[in-house]
Amino acid sequence: MTKKLLFLLDTDPAPSVFDTVVGYDGGADHVIGYGGVTLENVGALVDGAIYTRGPKEKQFTAIFVGGGNIVAGEAVFEAVKKRFFSNFRVSVMLDSNGSNTTAAAGVALLAKAKPLAGKKAVVLAGTGPVGMRAAAMLHIEGAEVAITSRSKQSAEAASKAINDRFGFTPAAIGAADNAARAAAVKGAHIVFAAGGIGVPLLDEKDWQDDPTIEMLADCNAQPPVGIGGVDPFDKAKERHGKIVIGALGLGGLKLKLHRACVGQLFESSEQVFDAENIYAQAKALA
Fold it and tell me: What is the reported pTM?
């Protein structure tokens, strides 16, 4: 029986343990990880994947692009696809730092709870992989989106990168501290926190009595959480009259989605998973 091989091409120095485990749980027989993947060395790795099996067996080879930097991941992802020609291709998925699957799970659960069209959404720490993808998915739902960063320059650079990929420019807000972030969410209906582990972004007092905020989602499961007053296990729970989603509340859908996409990579040699179709699957699974 032909083995299902998943090649993990990671732009970080070492391939992700998380992505390796989920690769196996998604149905791969073997996950082979490469760290430090760049535009300069990715070609030879892709060639090894597309030239070694016949047309009928190519569906059992797939490529997963990961790493902590979504811009670097997007560049490698595009380079992988450009290497394909005719039937010399395999399925490929982009999920740098869980960007697509985590953001998709969070936004899909928000959209399930309430329509997002016409709502004002602020993505706190919106310059990282998850934040940038969440901004795009909120836009797909018709929300008016802004992203924050500790520096206005970083927010503007991320906003430009989002525009280059998705064709819209979220408002860029510099918010260096909690007070500035509290000011940034004034007038917003949706707050999506996409900060790093243990980085508090918004105090409970700054949202609990806000008459405009309707929904909040936080991607940080380890204390201190990103949004004060949010329990990581919250899943569309009502707190202070608002719908709240915690990191573990969305984490179940994220893992289900990640595994499902990996499994589908082996259904043909022509699957391409990125933000739009991963988000569509998240909505179907939510």
Answer: 0.96
